[in-house]
């Protein structure tokens, strides 16, 4: 079973975080939602979520992937926390999957994880990604998966399922969730 750490900071984007968790858990991934502090984490629109535990309990040896949702000031709060950055380096050193959506890919760009790689992000952060930026819903390059924003969250989550679990599971979920529905 794939084990995934999703890191929440105050100001996270709801659809990117919870939509991703929903799809990953439907695919039977073991998703651990880690907060930066004790207690509930507030989204950018005031939705409060109680994480499964603290970021301090996340060790790259125990997980297959780390996921950073976007939203503001959530992405800035993730970027300002040295524990998040240390985890990213640890996941990278071990060749583990690093996934970021919306504003969060700017963190990967600033910390050097996108050197020589292609990625995408929310359009207003494209300049930060520089030569790495591609305007696509989801970009996979090596151990990095990036996506653009709330509307691309399902595609982002399905890309993670494809990589860590099985494309057949993705296809089954897409049908069950009416992803292909022309309603």
TrEMBL record:
The record's Pfam families line, in alphabetical order, gives: DJ-1_PfpI (PF01965)
Q: Which N-terminal residues, if any, form the signal peptide?
A: none
What name appears for this protein in its UniProt entry? Answer: DJ-1/PfpI family protein
Q: Which InterPro entries match?
A: C56_PfpI-like, Class_I_gatase-like, DJ-1, DJ-1/PfpI, Prot/Nucl_acid_deglycase
Superkingdom of origin organism: Bacteria
Q: Any idea where the DJ-1/PfpI domain is?
A: 3-162
Task: State the similarity comment.
Answer: Belongs to the peptidase C56 family.
Which SUPFAM superfamilies does this one have?
A: Class I glutamine amidotransferase-like
Alphabetical list of CDD domains matching this protein: GATase1_DJ-1
Q: Which GO terms describe its cellular component?
A: cytoplasm
């Amino acid at each position: 079973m794939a084990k995934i750490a999703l890191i929440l900071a105050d100001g996270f984007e709801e659809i990117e975080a919870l939509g991703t968790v929903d799809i990953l858990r439907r695919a039977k991934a073991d998703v651990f939602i880690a907060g930066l502090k004790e207690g509930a984490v507030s989204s950018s629109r005031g939705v409060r979520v109680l994480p499964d535990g603290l970021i301090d309990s996340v060790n790259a040896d125990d997980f297959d992937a780390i996921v950073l949702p976007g939203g503001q000031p959530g992405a800035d709060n993730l970027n300002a926390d040295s524990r998040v950055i240390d985890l990213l380096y640890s996941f990278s050193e071990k060749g583990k999957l690093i996934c970021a959506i919306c504003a969060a890919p700017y963190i990967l760009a600033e910390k050097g994880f996108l050197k020589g790689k292609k990625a995408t992000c929310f359009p207003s952060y494209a300049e930060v990604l520089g030569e790495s930026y591609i305007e696509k819903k989801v970009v996979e390059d090596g151990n990095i998966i990036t996506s653009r924003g709330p509307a691309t969250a399902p595609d982002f989550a399905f890309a993670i399922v494809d990589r860590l679990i099985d494309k057949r599971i993705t296809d089954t979920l897409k049908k069950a969730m009416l992803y292909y529905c022309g309603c």
